Amino acid sequence: MSILVFGSLNIDHVYQVEHLVRPGETLPSTEYRRFQGGKGANQSVALARAGADVFHAGRIGPEGLWLRDAIAAEGVDVTHVGLDNQPTGHAIIQVDPAGENSILLYGGANLTVTSEDAHYVLSHFGEGDWLLLQNEISSLPAILLEAYERGLTVAFNPAPMTPEVLSYPLEGVSLFVVNQTEGATLAETNDVSPETVVGALQARLPNAAILLTLGVDGSLYARGGECIRTPAVAVNAVDTTAAGDTFIGYFLAELLAGEPVQKSLALASRAAALCVTRPGAADSIPRRDEIEDSSFGRGE
To answer: If DSSP codes are grouped into helix, strand and coil, which group holds residue 58?
Structure first.
């Protein structure tokens, strides 16, 4: 079983700062590093490192060829990563000593994906395959409709959350992965408590599973009458940039391998916890053997 990630590829410019910059403030950075990133690329790397059979579709500019090479080196099929004359998408990321971050995102070539691109790429996939989407590329409504018509199982992580998502054709999505703020916006509620968000999302999208990520409080999975709460693994965070992407990649890789939801959530939590102990985005995502061949996150 294959999974197609149709998503962003970004160059991440990461600055270590004493605190996140305030409006009107000029703040010196103590360190600068460049990483491969983009939620789509991060999730492809996480899936590949977790052992899944991964394809990536998206667009880059001329200065982003190294991004395509980097995810290809992880075993990701990059046949459907196209070259555009627009600049590659990029992010400017501030990280404070506690590992919290603030991100400024420029879409660039990620926003040149067309409905024709969607049709061509998805014509190579069909029933039995999975599609993982985020909200960092253009033509998502066309991609969602085409995927549904072709019988793909769709997982959607609507981040960054925008008002346009509410008008997308979401009926064909099988799994939503959201944090509390994203979930509340999608459910159109002002109450961000986990139970309220999940309940409201189930009422609006009754045919989909909901995976609510709760940061240090773990995660909450709900489908029909099933509800699974998974605690987070306590660590000293260095950089939280790709934690959510790592969690999603490992969770879906386990599901595709036929593992039950609870086991998939537990491994995903351990992977995300190990991720935040390292700097960077894709570079911080752990490999499967790092998690399985150690006592990390097992309470041993």
So the answer is: strand
Q: Cα angle at 59 between 239 and 173, to 5 degrees? A: 75
Measure Cα distances from 166 to 11, 33, 64, 202, 271 in Å.
28, 36, 31, 15, 31
Which sign does the torsion angle of CA 280, 49, 251, 77 carry?
Answer: positive
Reference 155, options 135, 140, 138, 176; nearest CA is 176
Mean pLDDT score, 50-55: 97
Q: How far apart are the first and last CA of the chain?
A: 34
Q: From the centroid of its chain, how far is CA 270?
A: 16
Q: Per-residue pLDDT averaged across 49-61, rounded?
A: 97
Report the residue count for the chain: 300
Q: Spot the catalytic one: 245, 283, 289, 293.
A: 245
Residue 185: its H or E element: helix 180-187
245 tagged catalytic: yes
Give 118's Cβ-side CA count (13 Å radius): 23
- Judge whether residue 262 has pLDDT over 80: yes
Note the pTM of the prediction, 2 decimals: 0.91
258: which 2 tokens? Answer: 């036929």
Q: Which residues contact 60 (CB under 8 A, 6 or more apart)?
A: 9, 67, 68, 81, 82, 83, 84, 88, 89, 109
Q: What is the pLDDT, as a whole number, of residue 296? A: 62
Is it the case that residue 294 has pLDDT exceeding 70? no
pLDDT digits over 226-247, tens only? 999 999 998 888 877 789 999 9
**Do the Cβ atoms of 133 and 143 come closer than 8 Å?**
yes
In sequence order, the 6+-apart residues with CB closer than 8 A to the CB of 263 are: 254
- Residues 265 and 39: their CA atoms lie apart, in Å, by 19
Closest by CA position to 175, among listed 134, 131, 221, 210: 210
